[in-house]
């Protein structure tokens, strides 16, 4: 430990020994020595002028942080349902075989640690994994022996990347095999556009006029909640406080969503332009891009883009010669926590604490980051805002439906011929999306990710919009070869893993829902278990504190609604009141093995 | 008073003060809204969700929601009572609550709520998780089996004792209360006189050598349900 | 008209709940006016002889024999009542539920500080029922109609519940009678 003291001191100093940058400190300690040792908690705490338990609180919250020593290379196999259906389990088996260790273990020589992780945003090129920050896509079992051999010889995961993806994925600062898979470019975001045209026009107007334009355009938040962006900016502008902040939510953690990955690769300037417009409109000088830990391979590239904009006078002081308009942006890295996509959690995380959500009275627009008025918007929302300023609110609101203006980026994945990004006008029918993506024999589509809705063919005529099928981008397609309840079960597993545990219904209710769903799937459930799921799910939804818990029962509730026959076929009445869920043979298994004899009373 | 406003709870109009939470206003009016994590001396955090009410059509935790003039609140509807009962059941099955030998029995707010709701057995299966007992402190026992993660101790230590003995660590079902010491509570500056030592609603933080002081039958919730004191205010 | 029959059993319990049943004192005379007792440790009848109206279950299931008995009760009783904390939530025996079975057995027969067992023999006679992996509350094994918590539930609690059932009244315990300790 003593040899680490200078390193740790140096890291803390780099972040000004500022308690609010604790996240960055522990992240960098982890990067530099492979973990955040418990013995270092006290030192970090004293350097950052906080308490030891606060450091432990942060380190124990994020799944990419650890107080246990890990290998030089940490392999994180993406374990979402799309990857599983594309063969992630076989990849896992191959990794276990080649490495000679199980998940959660490290090779004896300390080189490689094997783990599973939630969706890493590569569902269009699954199965995929991360090796440290390097993303490896389109895995196949036969590639694993070579891959492991290479990592053993040279524990530098970047060497695994031999072929680059398209577009900026091949940029020297990215050098990733990730592909954009842009399948449909719509008029707002993915078509060619006039760089910084929106910002230049905005600066000719007053901030109030900019807000008025955004309001007129009817732009609503692209993260899925659909709050009116112009109204949010107006409230932030009007809220009292000397400092105001513009936060960009790039914590794209909803499984099956990967459109922000593409925007941050191909439309960084548009994102930053939109943030700058927002800063001008609300009167902010500081912006933060909260980048999910899984996308850290894009970090250097983003930093470089920000630098270029500083040089070009598009960030920094007196932007585009506009005396007194100062705005700059920093990146806050996440560290593996889905809940940080919830805006108040994201703010907690930016402030260097664990990502617990906070109460939304007051709302972030009044008291957000550093208790100051803060506008948190989605990556895509900023892109839209910049384009609205350039092309005018009327142009924007003429696209889409009356209540859902503009286009929506969809990340389509799963059982379809062309997984990828589709920019479609709001109102486009789900059936049309499926046709574009080449999806046939579809039994179920999960719109909006696990927190959204699982719908069947009866709902395919509905349109993608806030009023019908709402989504932050995720569209997961499941053919009639798939077990729909396996999907729901995997989603519940996801929520159990990702609940922050702050409030009771989400912390406990999701575990109970998952267990009871498993029982039903095993054929051990009775019709009463379906009522149990329904009532429990409703309580979790109704009483949970933040958006995570309020949507976490959706996989169960939406399948109970839309796929009831699947459940009905699995449940049977308990004959004579003897619970099928109690399996006596399984219950005596251990004792039977210890005693070396079978049960004298019960026989299989 | 200039800040006096009117709100309606279950059809009854009551007076409230701007700056109050729904819970505080209800208490003053003699209307009991069940709660666990909330404590009059501490900043509310809305973690247990037992005080969930419907406020102008939307679910809200009464302990954190400030009152506004004209608010219409539902408190004792069959739906809300069911949701609250479900949450109480969840707390019982997520820990290891062995009331029969717990020093807090009879004075425990979780148990008292279950009594008030007439719960004879939780409807959910017991999880029987493995939890630690930290007896390292000379005067205080920390039994995680009984913790409901209300974070009263976290707040009391910070807000009332000017210390920082406790903080939440981990996440999800594995979330627990951590202590500000190398290993255990005995390594912290916790003192038995701290407010954090007697603010636990359940039997997680217990003072040593003083258990079972009050005879059965005379304990806080032996005869009258929790909340009776508040309802007694009702005119 | 024949009287309704009541059967009782103690599974993984301490018989404390049965003691509490006897604590109804002279009211037992009223009780036998109302019911006939079938299988019960009180009369030492070993198996249920005919259909019973009420079965009282003390204790959860810690071994296979408990499950067997509980099944017999469920199949032969119209109404099954968990009485006491052990039946309701596993109780003291369930404190082993987060310890692996082998560790429990070793502690009991080999490693415990008060154990004298130089040959380290663990009783293995086939007559001894196999332990379950954990202690199960009764309602996790069979359908339970009512629960009367308490360690033990007081005689008054039992009396109130039984007389309510036998007179076709709803089983609603007054506040003072619902206790978990």
Automatic annotation (TrEMBL), chain A:
CDD domains for this protein: TRX_Fd_NuoE
Domain spans labelled NADH-ubiquinone oxidoreductase 51kDa subunit iron-sulphur binding: 485-530
UniProtKB keywords: 4Fe-4S, Homeobox, Iron, Iron-sulfur, Metal-binding
Domain of life: Bacteria
Gene Ontology molecular function terms on file: 4 iron, 4 sulfur cluster binding; DNA binding; FMN binding; metal ion binding; NADH dehydrogenase (ubiquinone) activity
InterPro entries: NADH-UbQ_OxRdtase_51kDa_CS, Nuo51_FMN-bd, Nuo51_FMN-bd_sf, NuoE_dom, NuoE_N, Nuop51_4Fe4S-bd, Nuop51_4Fe4S-bd_sf, Thioredoxin-like_sf
Annotated signal peptide: none
Pfam families in UniProt: 2Fe-2S_thioredx, Complex1_51K, NADH_4Fe-4S
PANTHER family the record matches: NADH-QUINONE OXIDOREDUCTASE SUBUNIT F
Entry's family note: Belongs to the complex I 51 kDa subunit family.
Protein name per UniProt: NAD-reducing hydrogenase HoxS subunit alpha
From TrEMBL, chain B:
Coiled-coil segments on the chain, per record: none
Cofactor section: [4Fe-4S] cluster; [2Fe-2S] cluster
Domain 4Fe-4S His(Cys)3-ligated-type as annotated: residue spans: 79-118
Signal peptide range in chain numbering: none
GO biological process per UniProt: ATP synthesis coupled electron transport
Subcellular location: Membrane
GO MF annotations, alphabetized: 2 iron, 2 sulfur cluster binding; 4 iron, 4 sulfur cluster binding; DNA binding; metal ion binding; NADH dehydrogenase (ubiquinone) activity; oxidoreductase activity
Descriptive protein name: NAD-reducing hydrogenase HoxS subunit gamma
Species whose genome carries this gene: Pontiella sulfatireligans
Gene this protein is translated from: hoxU
UniProtKB/TrEMBL annotation, chain C:
TM region(s), chain numbering: none
Domain NADH:ubiquinone oxidoreductase-like 20kDa subunit: 14-165
GO molecular function: DNA binding; iron-sulfur cluster binding; oxidoreductase activity
Highest taxon listed in the record's lineage: Bacteria
Keyword Oxidoreductase part of the UniProt annotation: yes
Alphabetical keyword list: Homeobox, Oxidoreductase
UniProt cross-references to Pfam families, sorted A to Z: Oxidored_q6
Entry keyword Cell membrane: no
PANTHER family linked: COENZYME F420-REDUCING HYDROGENASE, GAMMA SUBUNIT, HYDROGENASE SMALL SUBUNIT
Name of this protein: NAD-reducing hydrogenase HoxS subunit delta
Source species: Pontiella sulfatireligans
């Amino acid at each position: 430990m003593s040899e680490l003291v200078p390193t740790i001191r140096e890291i803390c100093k780099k972040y000004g020994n500022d308690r609010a940058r604790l996240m960055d400190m522990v992240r960098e300690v982890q990067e530099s020595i492979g973990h955040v040792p418990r013995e270092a908690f006290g030192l970090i705490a004293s350097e950052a002028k906080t308490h030891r338990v606060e450091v432990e609180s942060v380190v124990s919250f994020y799944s990419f942080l650890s107080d246990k020593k890990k290998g030089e290379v940490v392999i994180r196999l993406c374990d979402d349902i799309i990857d599983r259906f594309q063969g992630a389990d076989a990849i896992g088996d191959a990794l276990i075989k080649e490495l000679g260790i199980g998940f959660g273990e490290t090779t004896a020589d300390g080189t490689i640690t094997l783990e599973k992780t939630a969706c890493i945003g590569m569902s269009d090129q699954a199965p995929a994994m991360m090796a440290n920050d390097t993303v490896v896509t389109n895995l196949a079992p036969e590639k694993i022996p070579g891959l492991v051999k290479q990592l053993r010889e040279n524990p530098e995961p970047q060497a695994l990347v031999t072929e680059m993806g398209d577009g900026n994925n091949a940029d020297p600062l990215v050098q990733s095999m990730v592909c954009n898979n842009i399948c449909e470019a719509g008029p707002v975001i993915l078509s060619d556009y006039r760089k910084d045209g929106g910002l230049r026009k905005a600066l000719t107007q007053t901030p109030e006029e900019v807000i008025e334009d955004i309001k007129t355009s009817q732009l609503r938040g692209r993260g899925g909640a659909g709050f009116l962006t112009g109204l949010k900016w107006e409230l932030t502008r009007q809220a009292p406080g000397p400092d105001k902040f513009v936060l960009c939510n790039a914590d794209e953690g909803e499984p099956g969503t990967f459109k922000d990955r593409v925007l941050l690769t191909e439309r960084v300037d548009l994102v930053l332009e939109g943030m700058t417009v927002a800063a001008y409109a609300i009167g902010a000088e500081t912006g933060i891009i909260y980048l999910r830990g899984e996308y850290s391979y894009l970090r250097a590239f983003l930093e470089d883009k920000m630098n270029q904009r500083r040089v070009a006078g598009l960030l920094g002081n007196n932007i585009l010669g506009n005396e007194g308009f100062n705005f700059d942006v920093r990146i806050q890295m996440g560290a593996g926590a889905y809940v940080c996509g919830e805006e108040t959690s994201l703010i907690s995380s930016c402030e260097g604490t664990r990502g617990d959500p906070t109460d939304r009275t007051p709302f972030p627009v009044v008291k957000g980051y550093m208790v100051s008025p803060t506008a948190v918007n989605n990556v895509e929302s900023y892109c839209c805002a910049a384009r609205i300023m350039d092309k005018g609110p009327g142009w924007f609101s003429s696209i889409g439906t009356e209540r859902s203006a503009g286009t929506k980026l969809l990340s389509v994945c799963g059982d379809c011929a062309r997984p990828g990004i589709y920019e479609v006008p709001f109102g486009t029918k789900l059936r049309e999306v499926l046709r574009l993506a080449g999806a046939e024999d579809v039994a179920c589509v999960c719109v909006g990710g696990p927190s959204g809705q699982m719908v069947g063919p009866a709902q395919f005529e509905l349109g993608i919009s806030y009023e019908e099928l709402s989504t932050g981008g995720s569209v997961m397609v499941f053919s009639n070869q798939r077990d729909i309840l396996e999907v729901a079960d995997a989603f519940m597993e996801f929520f159990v893993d990702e609940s922050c545990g702050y409030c009771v219904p989400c912390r406990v209710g999701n575990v109970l829902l998952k267990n009871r769903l498993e029982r039903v799937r095993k054929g051990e459930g009775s019709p009463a278990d379906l009522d149990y799921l329904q009532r429990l799910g409703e309580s979790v939804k109704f009483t949970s504190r933040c958006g995570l818990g309020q949507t976490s029962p959706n996989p169960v509730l939406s399948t109970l609604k839309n796929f009831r026959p699947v459940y009905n076929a699995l449940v049977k009445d308990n004959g004579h009141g003897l619970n099928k869920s109690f399996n006596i043979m399984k219950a005596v298994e251990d004792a039977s093995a210890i005693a070396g004899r079978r049960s004298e009373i019960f026989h299989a | 008073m200039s800040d006096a406003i009117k709100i309606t709870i279950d059809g009854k109009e009551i007076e409230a003060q701007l700056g109050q939470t729904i819970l505080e206003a209800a208490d003053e009016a003699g209307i009991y809204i069940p709660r666990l994590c909330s404590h009059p001396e501490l900043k509310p955090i809305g973690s247990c969700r037992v005080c969930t009410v419907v406020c102008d059509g939307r679910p809200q935790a009464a302990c954190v929601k400030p009152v506004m003039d004209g608010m219409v609140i539902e408190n004792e509807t069959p739906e809300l009572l069911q949701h609250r009962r479900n949450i109480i059941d969840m707390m019982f099955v997520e820990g290891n609550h062995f009331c029969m030998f717990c020093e807090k029995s009879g004075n425990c707010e979780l148990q008292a709520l279950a009594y008030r709701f007439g719960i004879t057995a939780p409807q959910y299966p017991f999880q029987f998780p493995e939890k630690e007992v930290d007896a390292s402190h000379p005067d205080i026992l920390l039994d995680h089996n009984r913790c409901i993660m209300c974070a009263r101790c976290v707040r009391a230590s910070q807000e009332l004792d000017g210390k920082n003995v406790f903080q939440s660590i981990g996440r999800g079902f594995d979330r627990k209360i951590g202590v500000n010491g190398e290993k255990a509570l005995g390594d912290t500056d916790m003192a038995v006189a701290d407010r954090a030592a007697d603010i636990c609603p359940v039997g997680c933080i217990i003072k040593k050598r003083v258990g079972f002081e009050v005879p059965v039958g005379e304990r806080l919730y032996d005869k009258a349900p929790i909340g009776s004191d508040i309802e007694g205010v009702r005119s | 008209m024949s009287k309704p029959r009541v059967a009782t059993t103690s599974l993984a319990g301490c018989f404390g709940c049965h003691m509490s049943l006897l604590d109804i004192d002279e009211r037992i005379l009223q009780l036998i006016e109302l019911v006939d007792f079938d299988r019960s440790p009180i009369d030492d009848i070993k198996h249920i002889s005919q259909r019973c109206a009420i079965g009282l279950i003390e204790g959860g299931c810690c071994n296979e024999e408990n499950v067997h008995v509980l099944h017999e009760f469920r199949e032969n009783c119209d109404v099954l009542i968990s009485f006491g904390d052990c039946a309701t939530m596993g109780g003291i025996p369930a404190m082993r539920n987060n310890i692996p079975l082998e560790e429990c057995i070793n502690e009991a027969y080999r490693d415990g500080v008060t154990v004298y067992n130089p040959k380290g023999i663990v009783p293995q006679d086939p007559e001894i029922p196999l332990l379950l992996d954990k202690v199960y509350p009764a309602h996790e094994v069979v359908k339970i109609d009512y629960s009367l918590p308490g360690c033990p539930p007081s005689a008054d609690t039992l009396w109130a519940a039984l007389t309510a059932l036998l007179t076709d009244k709803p089983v609603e315990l007054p506040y003072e009678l619902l206790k978990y300790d």
